[in-house]
Amino acid sequence: MAVVITVPICLLLAVAGLAVYGRAEALGDARTTRAEVGLSLRVQALVHQLQRERGLTNGLLGGEERFRTPLAATRKRVDTALRAMRPESAVEDVIQRHLRRLAAIRAAADKDTAADRDTSDRTGTLAFYTAAVDALNAVDPVAETATRADRQLSDGLAALRELAAAKESVALERGLLNGVFAQGSFHGREYLAFTEVRAARVAALARFRQVATAPQRAALENAFGTEDAERATAYENQAEGAADGSALRADAGTWWDAMTVLVDDLYAVQRSVGDDVRDRADRLSHDAELGLAAYLVGGTLMAALVGGLAAFASRSLTRPLGALAEAAHDVARNRLPATVARIQQSPQDPVDLLPSADARDNPDARLLGGPAEIAEVAASLQQVERTALHLAAQQAGLRRNTTESLANLGRRNQNLVRRQLGLITRLERQELDPDALAELFELDHLATRMRRNAESLLVLAGQNPPRPTAAPSDGLEVVQAAVAEVEQYRRVLIATVEPVRVRGHAVADVAHLLAELIENGLTFSPPTEPVEVHGWYDAEDDTYSFAVVDHGVGMSEADKERANARLSDSGEEALLAAPARFLGHLVVGRLAHRLGEGAQVHLFDTTGGGLSALLVLPGRLLAPAQDHSATPPPAKPAVSHLLNGFRAGVARAEARSAQGVSP
Fold it and tell me: Where is each Histidine kinase/HSP90-like ATPase domain found (predicted)?
């Protein structure tokens, strides 16, 4: 149901967001266009003055000294326009690249005598100004503006762009023929340049008429219909007839005046078109602002309405779902664990402890309310609880039966082996034949190992009381008893075992534990390598340590960490989860746990290869020595490095535990 509500809400909000984003984007476009039109008009003002300076400079270079005075005034206006354009970074870059030689060009044009001027100077100067004007027109932002929403604005921008190109062609023609008329004829490629400029003007005007409005086309026709424009046309026709380089009888000043009026008229049309475009951009910006505000208000109202509906729908679902969640939490955290614990701890049949279906009927399920689906979920939850309880009861019964079977089998084997050992002992006392006696000793050894296996089974079942011992035993006797319970006892080397007395109630468990460790070392070391057993007393900690050292295959760090975890775990879960080949580790862990607090078993690497196991017995398991004046001898070097390795391994384990790393 949450998906059914959420999907439409998300779709509505997405549609509203897209609409607001579209209006915001339209507002941004309108504001950008308005700013760019303003910059374009300032750029065209600079271009207009540069075009005038270009024409006057070209006439001056052609020999008309009367252009010097108007040229000086035009240069001042150019400088003023340049200073006004400095804050614009894009235009500033063009000014730096194309007008940095402006002072030098002006100085060259101001030479005193006309004899120092030639056609190449006039052509180069004309090219300099033309390149600067073309660069300014290219950086004009209107040339890059594109609108997606308003055709009228797009046509206005295109008309402004084409009119700028036409005006540049007229101004370039004015400057070019100004020099030609002052010189008296065409020279070099000047006539070809004249024809190219006229063709560019015609093409630009044709494109302007295609996108301009009727008033804009009328203003253009008025600009070309004045007397000055007709006079300029007559001069153009005269220039067309001098393609062969013949002399031209035309007054440069008259030509300049006529063309200047035409250029100024075209500039006026250009500003009029720019004003129209800017007004259109202002209107679009205003409309976009109003539209954005309307969409924001509508979106806010829609979000509020949708939020209210969602809250209403959510409350109709969350109340019964909350009650259902509380019931589920109570089942998972309280009722189910409590019932499972009661089943596992009770001596009765687990199935008899299960509540009846009527007793497990959850009253909350009838009070949840809400849709029928929620009631079905509540009923399913009750069924899950009942099924879980049945499974827990079955598992507890199976676990109990398995444990009892193991314990029963272990006790039977233990009794049989005890009787067998008694019989073998009587036969040993009666036998005089050395060979037969040796075989009886071997049979006695096998029976002793069988007794250890039976006791291990009882240890795993958790029902094996320790073997009674009347009095404390010496540490060496405990080691010898452990060696007697392993198969390859001849490979066991009992090294230095310092004197110690182990309390009677712990002797059997310590011997059993050492036997398991020695058996493991014998199994995983070469047949030719002995397994060493060391023992020493640590007065600093008041502990006694037994070390079982082998030089076999060893273990990886990961396997060693898992083995140490099993050695320190005495719970039933470890027995059920551990593979069968690691049951010996669990037996050692159970025995160490039964020895009480302070008893530890730890595995670490043997120097030179192999694995060492260390059993540490606390002082409470040690009986007072018979000779109190005797001082225990210091630990041998081999024992010292075992003790250091054990302490280092324990320190690493504690560090991992402090960091939250599971073994």
Answer: 509-617
Q: Distance between CA atoms of 250 and 248, rounded to whole angstroms?
A: 6
Task: Give CA–CA dist 141/281, Å, rounded.
Answer: 14
Q: Are 572 and 593 in contact (CB under 8 A)?
A: no
Closest CA to 247 of 198, 194, 182: 182
* Helix, strand, or coil (residue 43): helix
pTM of the entire predicted model = 0.45
CA 489 – CA 512 distance, rounded (Å)? 14
Q: How far apart are CA 138 and CA 379, in angstroms?
A: 78
86's tokens: 């400095």
CA dist list (Å): 192 to 96, 205, 387:
30, 20, 102
Residues 6 or more apart whose Cβ sits within 8 Å of residue 29: 147, 148, 149, 288
State the DSSP code for 354: S
pLDDT computed for residue 1 by the predictor: 47
Query: CB of 443 within 8 A of CB of 420?
Result: no
Residue 61 to residue 98: CA distance in whole angstroms:
21
Phi-psi region of 188 (alpha: psi -120 to 50; beta: other; left: phi over 0): left
- Token pair recorded at residue 654: 């504690």
d(C-alpha 498, C-alpha 476), whole Å = 8
Identify the sign of the CA torsion 440, 443, 449, 455.
negative
Q: Show the tokens assigned to 191.
A: 């006539």
Q: Please spell the DSSP secondary structure of 458-527, one letter per residue.
A: HHHHT--PPPP-SS-EEHHHHHHHHHTTSTTGGGEEEEEE---EE-HHHHHHHHHHHHHHHHHHHHTS-T
The Cα 139–Cα 143 span in angstroms is 8
Phi, psi of 660, deg, nearest 5: 80, 20
Biggest CA-to-CA distance, the chain: 160
The amino acid sitting at 466 is P
Helix (H, G, I), strand (E, B) or coil at 535: strand
The partner residues of 534 in beta bridges, in order of sequence, read 547
Model confidence band, residue 629 (pLDDT cutoffs 50, 70, 90): very low
Count CB neighbours of 357 within 10 A: 10
pLDDT in tens, 524-581: 889 889 999 999 998 888 899 999 999 988 888 888 888 888 887 655 544 555 566 6
For β-strands 531-538 and 492-497, DSSP reports them as parallel
The CA-to-CA distance between both ends of the chain, in Å, stands at 44
Q: Which helix (H) or strand (E) holds 264?
A: helix 252-330
Cα distance between residue 398 and residue 389, in whole Å: 14
> Rg of the Cα trace of the chain?
54
Nearest by Cα to 99 from 119, 71, 117, 79: 79
Residue with tokens 């000055």: 228
Q: Identify the helix (H) or strand (E) that includes residue 50.
A: helix 2-62
List, in order, residues 6 or more apart from 617 with CB less than 8 Å away. 502, 506, 510, 543, 544, 545, 546, 595, 598, 599
Angle at 598 between CA 594 and CA 602, to 5 degrees: 85
- The answer to whether the CB of 135 falls within 8 A of the CB of 98 is yes
Q: Is 131 helix (H, G, I), strand (E, B) or coil?
A: helix
Q: How far is CA 400 from the centre of its chain?
A: 50
